[in-house]
Amino acid sequence: MAVARVSRTGLLTLLAAAALVLGATGCASKRLLRLENQVLQAENERLRTQVDKLEAQVPDSADFVQDVDLDVVAGWLDRAGFIHSRRGDGPSSVLELEYDGRNADFTVTVQHFPKSKVLFLATHDYLRLDDAPDSRGVVLLLVKLAALNYDLLIGKFQLDPDSGDILLSAELHLGDGLGYGTFVRLLEHLLGTADDTWPQLHRAAKGQGL
Questions:
Q1: CB–CB of 209/199 below 8 Å?
Q2: Is the distance from CB of 144 to CB of 210 less than 8 angstroms?
Q3: N or C: which end of the chain has fewer CB within 10 A?
Q4: Tens digits of per-residue pLDDT, 163-197?
Q5: Planar angle of CA 200, 206, 210, nearest 5 degrees
Q6: Taking each helix axis from N to C terminus, what angle separates 180-205 and 135-151, rounded to the nearest 10 degrees?
Q7: E strands within 55-104?
């Protein structure tokens, strides 16, 4: 009987210990669950913040267009306050705007080449090789053009050998679409560069040195 009592006592002790262990394990599990929930909540808040930032960076449809054409560009020119006209129809059509600068007045055209996905901007009625009165002026003008092209980061001066027209051009590649701000900044840069450098080119054409 003593053995039986001991066994029952031991069993009761074991059951009590097991109950304590299970209770402690349950409490620990609840604490771990609360901790995991807190971590997940913090992670969700972090991810939500990142998503909000990314959504804020997505350009508005009015500011960025995937498929650019001259209708889109015409709308951007209107928005930026540039008075312009359209010449020609279909793929050969050109947007044309007049620019009255501090140093020179000239025309800028915008052409779209869908196959190559390029928007081409160029000045016209800007300067001609004939503005040089003699061979010295021609040489100085060509040297000046080469020097300017070496320094230019955006745009390039070109000479049309058939007409003798000198123009400043720039290209925008449209493979990934185009934004309104990028287009306007490039146009303004082209206009400013052409206007600022005209006096230098004019002096070179007159043979007044570099």
A1: no
A2: yes
A3: N
A4: 999 999 999 999 999 999 999 999 999 999 999 99
A5: 45
A6: 150
A7: 64-65, 84-87, 94-100
In DSSP notation, 145-163 reads HHHHHHH-SS-EEEE-TTT
Q: List the structure tokens of 113.
A: 């080449």
99 secondary structure, DSSP code: E
Query: Which residues have CB under 8 Å from 113's CB, separation 6+?
Result: 119, 120
What's CA 23's distance to the chain center, in Å? Answer: 61
pTM of the model: 0.71
Q: Are 169 and 121 in contact (CB under 8 A)?
A: yes
Nearest alpha carbon to residue 126 among 75, 89, 176, 160: 160
CB atoms within 10 A of CB 71: 13
Could you say which DSSP state residue 45 is in?
A: H
Q: What values do phi and psi take at 97, rounded to 5? A: -135, 145
Q: At what angle do helices 70-80 and 180-205 cross, to 10 degrees?
A: 80
